[in-house]
Each structure stands twice: as C-alpha cells, then as structure tokens.
Amino acid sequence: ATNSQTDVENQLSPRELEILRLLSKGCLQKEIAQEIQIGYSTVRTLTARIYKKLHVHSRSQAVAKYNGTLA
Question: Would you give the distance in Å from CA 25 to the centre of its chain?
Fold first, then answer.
C-alpha cells in the first residue's frame, strides 16, 4: 500500500474502505449494494461519509486520493 492508501485506510471504517475499493474498481453504487448485501441508501450514506472524511466532493476525487494522485 502506498502512503496515501495507508492514510486513507486509517481514516475510514472497514466498511467504508470496502466501498471505496469497489468504487475505485468502477462499480456503481447499486452494484456495491448487491455485492456486499447492504441497502442502496446505506451505500449512498457511507459514500457521503467517505467524501466528508477525505475532504473530497466526488467519486473521482475519492479514488484519486486513495490511489495517491490527489494530495
């Protein structure tokens, strides 16, 4: 894991991290809900929490931060 991934991992809960990993693979929120067997609204809530914790406003920014391409 890169330093940025470690930083992100330290900020997020295991479930949030699981969702971020799936987002980084290009999965849609509905697909994530089915994949990890939680409600779509829960995925949306957790995604919003991820954005807030990482201080980003979009999926692409969150993924970039996770991948180390956004400081």
Answer: 10
The pLDDT of residue 22 is: 97
Q: Which residues contact 49 (CB under 8 A, 6 or more apart)?
A: 16
Interacting residues of 4 by C-beta distance below 8 A, sequence separation 6+? 65, 66, 67, 68
And the tokens for 7? 């930083």
In this structure, the chain runs to a length of 71
Separation CA 2–CA 30 (nearest Å): 28
Round to whole Å and give the CA distance between 14 and 4: 16
Q: Average pLDDT, whole number, for the chain?
A: 92
Give the pLDDT confidence of 27-54 residue by residue, as tens digits: 999 999 999 999 999 999 999 999 999 9
